[in-house]
């Protein structure tokens, strides 16, 4: 640990990109060594970077990528994987999240992930889009035209500040919601929404990008989350249209298939969807803190802190009336 710090302190005149790469590799390795699932490596050689990177490479080499058409959750939805991406199923996604990127296990919550063709999971510039599904019911969108996203952002910032105090009490770095990296946009015809938040953790020199895509369905919402650095905003934003176009619910599960006589209506609307209402249930999202923060990686960690905001500003209310 100290060796890298000493190297960095004397390397200010070197290429900043190289310094960032070395730092990210170091952080990734630290998260890897901290992961409980790899105690064998830790016991054999707990502080050898070479051994750590070899183990990471072995895990990465064992991933099974798919392209073309992919079916999610037994026909719930389909993805026509864009040429610039590859798909990993739930099991391989778990390997990336917990064993390579150092997050606690998700409990089988993920439906898979999309990763760029040009960057593997151990590449310092890696990023990906995690896919999950929240079957909370039909989310009404009749409040779409009335939403004031600037006002919503103010409330989210206040809630994040409150949550940050609790995080720090628990020994985690502070979190600040800096603002919209991309303001929310809702396609009423396609029933798809996307936005991006800029976040800052602790004293990190880099800001974190949390890019969100939501696709509304008959009984719930497909949740697609990507996190990278703010430097990757252009790459992620460039990819967003193709992702939005190629991930869709199938017949019987589409928003238009809703039956008011039999189907459940969600207790929140679009405002809570943006604020993070889907995360209030805990579980997977609350666990993705320690290792993910250490590596400045993934996934949905950026929005975990908004749970406090949801409870304060949206808790117990029907967001359809927001």
Concise structural overview:
By secondary structure, this protein is an alpha+beta fold. Residues about 1-45 and about 275-320 have low confidence and may be disordered.
Give your account of this protein's structure:
With 322 residues, this protein is α+β, with helices and mostly antiparallel strands. It folds into 2 domains: 1-61, no CATH class; 65-321, Jelly Rolls, CATH 2.60.120. Helix content is 37%, strand content 21%. It is built from 12 helices and 10 strands. The strands form 2 sheets. Strands 3-4-5-9-8-7-6 form a 7-stranded antiparallel sheet, sandwiched between helices. It has a 3-stranded antiparallel sheet with strand order 1-2-10. Strand 8 and strand 9 (221-229) form a beta hairpin. Helix 2 packs across helix 4 and helix 6 (149-169) crosses helix 12 (307-314). The termini are far apart. The model is unreliable at 1-46 and 277-322 (pLDDT under 50).
Order of helices and strands: HHHHEEEHEEHEEEEHEHHHHH
CATH top level of the largest domain is Mainly Beta
Helical percent range?
Answer: 25-40%
Secondary structure: number of strands: 10
Can you list the strand order of the major beta sheet? 3-4-5-9-8-7-6
Write the layout of secondary structure elements.
Layout: H1 2-9, H2 16-34, H3 39-44, H4 49-61, E1 68-72, E2 77-81, E3 85-88, H5 90-100, E4 112-116, E5 129-134, H6 149-169, E6 175-187, E7 192-201, E8 208-216, E9 221-229, H7 233-246, E10 247-249, H8 270-275, H9 284-287, H10 290-295, H11 301-304, H12 307-314
Antiparallel strand pairs: 1-2, 2-10, 3-4, 4-5, 5-9, 6-7, 7-8, 8-9
Helix pairs in contact: 2-4, 6-12
């Amino acid at each position: 640990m100290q060796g890298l710090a000493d190297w960095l302190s004397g390397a200010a005149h070197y290429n900043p990109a190289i310094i960032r790469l070395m730092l990210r590799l170091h952080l990734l390795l630290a998260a890897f060594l901290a992961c409980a699932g790899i105690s064998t490596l830790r016991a054999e050689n707990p502080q050898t970077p070479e051994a750590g990177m070899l183990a990471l490479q072995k895990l990465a080499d064992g991933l099974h990528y798919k392209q073309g058409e992919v079916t999610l959750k037994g026909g719930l939805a389909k993805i026509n994987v864009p040429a610039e991406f590859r798909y990993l199923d739930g099991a391989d996604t778990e390997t990336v999240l917990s064993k390579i990127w150092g997050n606690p296990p998700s409990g089988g919550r993920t439906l898979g992930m999309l990763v760029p063709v040009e960057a593997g999971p151990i590449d310092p510039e890696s990023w990906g889009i995690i896919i999950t599904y929240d079957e909370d019911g039909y989310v009404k969108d009749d409040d779409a035209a009335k939403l004031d996203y600037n006002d919503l952002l103010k409330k989210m910032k206040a809630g994040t500040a409150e949550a940050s105090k609790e995080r720090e009490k628990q020994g985690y770095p502070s979190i600040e919601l800096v603002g919209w990296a991309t303001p929310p946009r809702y396609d009423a015809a396609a029933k798809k929404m996307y936005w991006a938040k800029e976040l800052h953790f602790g004293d990190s020199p880099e800001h974190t990008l949390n890019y969100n895509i939501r696709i509304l369905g008959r009984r719930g919402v497909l949740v697609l989350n990507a996190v990278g650095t703010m430097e990757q905003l252009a790459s992620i934003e460039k990819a967003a249209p193709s992702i939005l176009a190629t991930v869709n619910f199938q017949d019987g599960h589409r928003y238009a298939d809703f039956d008011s006589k039999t189907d459940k209506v969600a207790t929140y609307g679009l405002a809570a969807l943006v604020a993070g209402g889907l995360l209030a249930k805990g579980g997977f999202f609350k666990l993705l803190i320690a290792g993910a923060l250490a590596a400045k990686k993934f996934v949905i960690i950026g929005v975990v802190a908004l749970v406090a905001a949801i409870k304060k500003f949206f808790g117990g209310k029907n967001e359809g009336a927001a």
